[in-house]
Amino acid sequence: VVADTLEGRIVDNQVYIETLGDNAAKVFEQTEALQIIACGTSYNAALVAKYWVEHYLNIPCLVEIASEYRYRKTATIPNSLFITISQSGETADTLAALSKAKGEGYLASLTVCNSPASSMVRESDFTLLTRAGTEIGVASTKAFTAQLVSLLLLTISIGKAKGLDKETEHNIVKALEHLPSEIQKALDQAGDIDKLSEAFAEKHHTLFLGRGQQYPIAMEAALKLKEVSYIHAEAYAAGELKHGPLALIDKDMPTVVVAPNDNLLEKLKSNIEEVRSRGGSLFVFADKSAKIQGSDGITVFPVDSSYNVTAPIVYTIPLQLLSYYVAVIKGTDVDQPRNLAKSVTV
Ligand code: F1P
């Protein structure tokens, strides 16, 4: 899916996004802020984009859940671009937010969408197709990784119109080119995740922790576990632990930590210790180079990810697989979870 999403969009180390059309570059040149609106998994993708946009483009990126944005009095940052993200392109709240945005003074609207023939594509000025194919399952999985790849391509595209330096663009493109093989390596670990999932199936709750651009990945991992295995799961920015969630830690509360080897790793190691010293059992998805030791109470699952910028996409794979295998053990219907609909049109 990731390879399909990238296919033809990187040529000679440059990003080309044909579905956006020629006029997009003119709008991007004027763009001084982004407002992204989405629901569910698509909202978590938007939160990752916020980290990328503010880090690489140095412009504000506001992210809001569609069902909140559509009903409140909002204020628009001058010269901002309105973006919706949706797998189905038919989600009622996101469509209503798009319709509301038309009277709010945005430069233009753009949708990152998986369905070419959808209402969202029809109603938006620009479209960036995610090309994830048909999602059979109700819970978004391949649409999520395709959204992330698309949002990173979009970040570069906006960046180019706003003078992003060539070296940064080149480094991000290099990371994207290596992504399909990194994803494949993660998929090859499915058997190990299957074994790991046994530790979760009997539990009633799970905590997920992440920092920086991996915090939204922890949120998505918690959402997936909830959706397909019906285990109560919550995600926290690891720095928030001491502001409340630490009270939940005991031997019956597994804590999953997303721990790539980045500039936040040392902080994250202290958070791991905060949980371990209170008797919590930890499952740390860590970069091989992060040198996190497994011990009593700490199980380390190695993840191979060489590029910081694309690490959120790579770490998503084992976490999605974890939900899948827990659901298989519990015998829930992974493709059609109870009470959920593929396209939330009301
Ligand atoms: C949003 C969403 C999905 C979720 C489920 C219900 O849909 O919350 O993320 O997995 O399918 O709807 P969309 O706007 O991305 O189609």
TrEMBL record:
Location in the cell: Cytoplasm
Ranges where the SIS domain occurs: 24-164, 196-337
Keywords: Aminotransferase, Cytoplasm, Glutamine amidotransferase, Repeat, Transferase
Name of the top EC class for this enzyme: transferase
Enzyme Commission number(s) from the entry: 2.6.1.16
Catalytic reactions on record: D-fructose 6-phosphate + L-glutamine = D-glucosamine 6-phosphate + L-glutamate
Catalytic site: K342 (for fru-6p isomerization activity)
Purpose of the protein: Catalyzes the first step in hexosamine metabolism, converting fructose-6P into glucosamine-6P using glutamine as a nitrogen source.
Subunit: Homodimer.
Protein name: Glutamine--fructose-6-phosphate aminotransferase [isomerizing]
Residues of the full protein shown: 263 to 608 of 609
